[in-house]
Amino acid sequence: xxxxxxxxxxxxxxxxxxxxxxxxxxxxxxxxxxxxxxxxxxxxxxxxxxxxxxxxxxxxxxxxxxxxxxxxxxxxxxxxxxxxxxxxxxxxxxxxxxxxxxxxxxxxxxxxxxxxxxxxxxxxxxxxxxxxxxxxxxxxxxxxxxxxxxxxxxxxxxxxxxxxxxxxxxxxxxxxxxxxxxxxxxxxxxxxxxxxxxxxxxxxxxxxxxxxxxxxxxxxxxxxxxxxxxxxxxxxxxxxxxxxxxxxxxxxxxxxxxxxxxxxxxxxxxxxxxxxxxxxxxxxxxxxxxxxxxxxxxxxxxxxxx
Length: 306
Ligand SMILES: Nc1ncnc2c1ncn2[C@@H]1O[C@H](COP(=O)(O)OP(=O)(O)OP(=O)(O)O)[C@@H](O)[C@H]1O
Ligand SMILES: [Mg+2]
Known about the structure:
The chain is α/β, with parallel strands linked by helices and 306 residues long. The chain has helices at residues 15-22, 104-111, 133-141, 158-168, 174-187, 203-215, 233-248, 260-266, 284-289, 294-305, and strands at 34-36, 55-57, 66-75, 78-88, 93-97, 119-124, 127-128, 143-146, 221-225, 252-256, 269-274, 277-282. The model is unreliable at 1-60 (pLDDT under 50).
């Protein structure tokens, strides 16, 4: 797919601003259905959201960034995903919720082909996921993943953790990668931790370093799988704030979380899963105020009681 650099977006983009930008296709050429802003980020201001590095889809061309179509998957004879259909537009934030074991993580892992699927297909920027080799590696490098466990290299500094991917995978020069890494660490609020080892950081700080590491690869899509569930309560909000800021900047995000406040405030749509199926997809207000299925009502009643 041909890529184009579109008009750079500067300044703060709240949700309203980001919606406007997302629908602005004035700089698109026919066929350039996805364009990514790769311009360097503007200088940090404390109230500025995280770098406006994101991809946008030309709606008139009709290509979502990710399109999951009729996907089913089993582990042995245990079916864990059944006929999943979900299209995620560029710039959209979809929060996936549902009971334990409903297939949320498996779905996330299928999106960047950490798991294979048995039926259906997954399109990324309009093309089927590559099955192997360079193309798969390239596609994966454009999808940032943040898990519950941070998986930082324990014996490397935070700065090294964030620069390793850009240098080794993207071939960036070390000084440029380091400058960008420091900028990202500042954006997630841990500029002063650049030369520390992961064990010298709190859980929330390590998770923010993991987010910076993912962003350093200039992803067009961020997948979050319960990024706050291993954190102490007081550290959860600092990570959610970073994610909110990222969402406001227009990053396309699929977020698995039990943080209903985040889902309400940051999601464009909420997808509710149970028993390997997506039972409901709706804007957060509609979903939380008037869930359509008994499963969703039960789930919300249980989770909101805690
Ligand atoms: N590698 C695997 N091999 C066999 N079964 C698996 C594997 N990974 C997941 N499963 C099973 O698939 C089902 C869905 O698991 P998954 O981790 O996707 O659920 P989840 O919705 O993310 O749950 P949780 O909220 O607890 O994280 C579960 O029954 C799980 O035991
Ligand atoms: Mg999971």
